[in-house]
Amino acid sequence: MESFSLILAIVVVTALAFDFTNGFHDTANAMATTISTGALKPKVAVGMSAALNLVGAFLSVEVANTISKGLVDENGIRPEVIFAALVGAILWNLVTWLVGLPSSSSHALMGGLVGATVASAGFGAVHGDVLVTKVLLPAVAAPVVAGIAAMLATRLSYGVGGNAGGEATRKGYRAGQIASAGLVSLAHGTNDAQKTMGIITLALVAGGALAPGSNPPTWVILSAGMAIALGTYIGGWRIIRTMGKGLTELQPQQGFAAQTSAATAILASSHLGFSLSTTHVVSGSVMGAGLGRKGGVVRWSTATRMVVAWVLTLPAAALVGALAESVTDLGDWGTGAVVVFLVASSAAIWKRSRREVVDSSNVNDVDAAEEPAGVVTTAIAMVTPPPVGPVPADLTATIPAPAETSAPVVAPAVPPAAAV
Fold it and tell me: What percentage of the chain reaches a pLDDT higher than 70?
């Protein structure tokens, strides 16, 4: 085994920085609904999620192997290529966090890696079959499957518990929601933490520090798990607000259904080695749970922005990764220039975020999260029966008041003299 070179050390540090951004970017996946329904206090929720992310990182390496062995050709990939890929992924994570959009950190990493690899070694170095079967197809299928499952689970929850006492039912579902949120956090660790393990392992192979085909070393698993746990504890409050309040209003029954459906899909994909986007899964399950309750609505304008971000993630990160690779290919000074650009851009994004601070104290600020109802939302509100339990304020605003009607016209009585 060769000693670490400077570029390899830079790649490892950058990969852990990406893992940190992945943690706070994806905290919403596990805890947004739990926080929005009041099942857990914000700080307690992110603390629990961070601990379970760390535990989940040690449960499997199947997704890590998909990244390090399957997506691109290990032979001929330089550490600079991995660094360029991480630059594209980190910048996309930070931009979408700034605007509060729950985009996929996983696809940002995939896109950056594909773009940098193509710029360095051509399209032949990317395994297209793996990209399609283990990345693109799950990206399309996962939110649909999770959404349908959550919608059916929500309807079942309301159907079974319809005659139960209101407060007792809410407490029971809150307890179930906490348990299911913990399961999502555990699943997130088994899936997303492994992506950084895979990218570091690929860099170690490219730098000659590991033999091709090696599994992630223990120190890689530990450092990746700790980085994503720390990022999770910091809390991506902007995205938590969007997922928990900006997409739909959830009651405890819906939160439980959404979290359980999402956890099942994520754990199944981790077992199969699919590099699934937990963001896609959880977003789909939240929308499904929103539609599963009678009278429940989804803010489709927010959902549309999210889908646009999902579509743009792969090509945008790939473009930045390819450009970064082109600059690092110029030599050490080019790599240094990319490092400076990454640090300066990250600092500028953070400074911009300070203009409107979102934290644990105002993450459930409904007024800040609300937006005008769209045409689809209004139409659904007009034709669906009233919801079970209290009617959310945003739904009340979408239901038009009944039009005033004039007094009925009464035909004049027939005079007795005219009667036959």
Answer: 76
Paired with 126 in beta bridges are: 72
Tokens of 235: 């809390």
Per DSSP, the residues of 359-384 read -TTTTT-HHHH-----HHHHHHHHHS
Give the Cβ contact number of residue 255 at 10 Å: 31
Helix (H) or strand (E) holding 333: helix 332-353
As a whole number of angstroms, the distance between CA 178 and CA 30 comes to 10
| Mean pLDDT estimate for the chain | 77
Three-class SS string for the chain? CCCCCHHHHHHHHHHHHHHHHHHHHHHHHHHHHHHHCCCCCHHHHHHHHHHHHHHHCCCCCHHHHHHHHHCECCCCCCHHHHHHHHHHHHHHHHHHHHCCCCCCHHHHHHHHHHHHHHHHHCHHHECHHHHHHHHHHHHHHHHHHHHHHHHHHHHHHHHHCCCCCHHHHHHHHHHHHHHHHHHHHHHHHHHHHHHHHHHHHHHHHHCCCCCCCCCCCHHHHHHHHHHHHHHHHHCCHHHHHHHHHHCECCCHHHHHHHHHHHHHHHHHHHHHCCCCCHHHHHHHHHHHHHHHCCCCCECHHHHHHHHHHHHHHHHHHHHHHHHHHHHHCCCHHHHHHHHHHHHHHHHHHHHHHCCCCCCCCCCCCHHHHCCCCCHHHHHHHHHCCCCCCCCCHHHHHHCCCCCCCCCCCCCCCCCHHHCC
Rounded average pLDDT over 111-136: 86
Other residues' Cβ atoms within 10 Å of the Cβ of residue 230 = 17
Which of these, 104, 85, 106, 63, lies nearest to 197 by C-alpha position? 63
Phi-psi region of 122 (alpha: psi -120 to 50; beta: other; left: phi over 0): left
Backbone angles phi, psi at 418, to 5 degrees: -85, -10
- Using DSSP's 3-state secondary structure scheme, residue 72 falls into strand
* CB 402 within 8 Å of CB 382: no
pLDDT digits (tens, 9 = 90+) for 385-410: 444 444 444 444 444 454 444 444 44
Euclidean distance between CA atoms 406 and 4, whole angstroms? 85
Rounding to the nearest 10 degrees, give the CA dihedral for residues 26, 32, 34, 40: 80
Tokens of 108: 């940002």
The pTM for the full model equals 0.75
Which residues neighbour 347 within 8 Å (Cβ) at sequence distance 6 or greater? Answer: none
Contact between residue 193 and residue 19 where contact means Cβ atoms under 8 Å apart: yes
